[in-house]
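# step 3/5: fold
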Amino acid sequence: MNDFVIEHPDGLSTYRVYEKAPNLSDNIQVTNGEAIDLAGGPPQNTMMWRTFVTLCHSLDKQGGWDHSDATRECRLLANVALQTKRILIALAKSAENSFEEIVIDDIDYE
């Protein structure tokens, strides 16, 4: 995604969406991708990432990203974003396949 923290003068936000397949070896394989241009004010996901960036900068100033209470909100927001993406991918696959049920594996992002 570009222009997600500092808004572009023409008001466009460009998103590059990649579908990635997780595996147990910690390697992530890109399986698909597309670009989307949006006009207008920032959507909810833009505001989510802006909030995430603000939290990241505040943690960097405090000394780092350990698994403390101070980093909990940042880690939680990142986990929600990853889980939401997996749900959206499953919904798209279901819609492409006559709305068949898609099982989403439980992955602990912590």
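# step 4/5: annotate
The chain has a mean pLDDT of 76.
# step 5/5: archive (pending)
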